[in-house]
Amino acid sequence: MAIASSFGLGTDESHYVLFSRHLAWGYFDHPPMVAFLAALTTLFGDGLFFIRLGPIICSAISLVLLRFLALALYRDERVAFWAAVLLLLMPYQHLLTVALLPDATLNLFWCGTLVALWHAMKDGRWPVWVLVGLLLGGALLSKYHAVLLPLCVLFYLLTSPSRRFWLGRIQPYVAGLISLIVFMPNIIWNARHNWISYAYQLAHGGSGHFSLGKLLGAFGGQMGAWSPVIFGLLIAAFIVTAREKPFSESDRFVFWTSLPVFVFFCGIGAFGKILPHWPSVGWWTGSLAVTTVTLRKISPRDNAGIRWRRWCVAAAITGFVMISFLYTVAFVPIVGPLYSHARSISMRLNQHLPAIKPMKPFKSKYDITNRLFGWEEIAEKVEAIREEMACPERTFVFSHRFFTTSQLAVYLHPETVATSLHPLLRIT
User: Fold this and answer.
1) Residue 222: which H helix or E strand, with range?
2) Which of 250, 14, 235 is nearest to 122 (CA)?
3) Per-residue confidence band for 362, with pLDDT thresholds at 50, 70 and 90
4) Could you give the CA distance from residue 389 to residue 384 in angstroms, rounded to a whole number?
5) How far apart are CA 135 and CA 148, in angstroms?
């Protein structure tokens, strides 16, 4: 909350703020929940603080739901506490905590669905199954990635001897029907707009050919977003959990509601480009997997326990350093000097080893934090130029890229028309 208004809106955030000013049941690239969230919080003010207040609240509630899930699964406060700590040692998690993104409400409804689902399968009460359907519908209205949750649950039920009977009961299917009813307004919106959102998402990732380099790049993106040591611990936790006999119901639930998410998106990354935060929902139960395995491994005073302790310390240090660098870069212009220093080293190496090519001179676009500042000042100049035009009331602003238009349009006068002249991406 202290830093929410300390830096300008990112590209996607600006896009979603414009959504909130033109509420609908669907948009070109996302369902509407992020727009509803921004519209709700900006009722109290249109400043950066209120724009980002929604994600902050959603993140806080998601952590509370994670605690409830941990206690329901393991009845151990240590698991709940250290899972939350683990999440906050991941650099990208800090961005998701404050940024206005569809992941804010997706995380909230995803965690809520998991908690309700576990209790529904345990107690079998109809009101809880209805709640599962409502929460899953909210997740679908948040981000299309929520379609993975029913698949994860299906894998869990198919592999669970004691819970498989639910596949023959009506309650899960009624919950699924309720979620579709909640999601129906978005389906109707897409039907009226040539299914544009679904078509875009289906073609957005994984449309190319398989490449080992792309697959490694997807793994590299995960390591950079969540910390290489922590992501390595997640993989190790999955392997240890899969080998454990017997396979407890809690471990099985955590395993199947996390692993498929990472497998799916890394698999998509082998064919096309994925963004690092796409598998973020897998970390809610993924953090429980890492925590439970770690607590079991470090308990014995043997060599394996010592190694796991060392890896935990390495994960904490690495995460802290990466997070510190993230916040430093956001507020202090150090990317340029660091790049220039690296370029000087490359030039000296090139003098002795011509095979090593020197780095190109630094450009401001290399520092992506530059995109967070200056748009309000640009908007003022654009409005001044528009007023000097022959017919200012008929003069509109356009760009060839939607994200440039979005970042500018947020700060323009509400009556000023801003659009993209790309045939498929228009914002008015």
Assistant:
1) helix 212-226
2) 250
3) confident
4) 9
5) 14
Rg of the chain (C-alpha set): 24
The answer to whether 217 touches 275, Cβ cutoff 8 Å, is: no
Q: Are 420 and 400 in contact (CB under 8 A)?
A: yes
Q: 319 to each of 45, 57, 316, how far by Cα in Å?
A: 34, 23, 5
Looking at the DSSP bridge assignments, the partners of residue 419 are: 398
Per-position b or e across 187-204, b if 16+ CB within 10 A of its CB: bebbeeeeebbbeebeee
pLDDT digits over 109-145, tens only?
A: 999 999 999 999 999 999 999 999 999 999 999 999 9
Q: What is the DSSP letter of 270?
A: T
Neighbour count for residue 139 (Cβ, 10 Å): 31
Longest dimension (CA), the chain: 81
pLDDT, averaged across the chain: 92
- For residue range 218-268, list pLDDT tens digits in order: 889 899 999 999 999 999 999 999 998 888 999 999 999 999 999 999 999
β-bridge partners, 420: 399
Which tokens is 304 given?
A: 């394996």
List beta partners, residue 398.
Answer: 419
- Contact yes or no for 258/311 (Cβ under 8 A): no
pLDDT in tens, 165-222: 999 999 999 999 999 999 999 999 999 999 999 998 887 765 578 888 888 888 898 9
Place of tokens 């955590």: 254
Report the alpha-carbon distance of residue 270 to residue 263 in Å, rounded.
Answer: 11
pLDDT in tens, 299-315: 877 888 899 999 999 99
Distance (Å, whole) CA 423 – CA 403? 14
Residue with tokens 């309650």: 171
* H or E element that contains 419: strand 418-420
- 369 contacts 330 by C-beta, under 8 angstroms: yes
Strand ranges inside 24-116, DSSP E: none
Evaluate the omega torsion of the peptide bond into residue 246 and state whether it is cis, within 30 degrees of 0.
Answer: yes
Residues 292, 211: Cα–Cα separation, whole Å: 34
Q: For position 401, what pLDDT does the model report?
A: 83
Q: Which helix (H) or strand (E) holds 14?
A: helix 11-21
Instruction: Give the pLDDT confidence of 407-419 residue by residue, as tens digits.
Output: 999 999 888 999 8
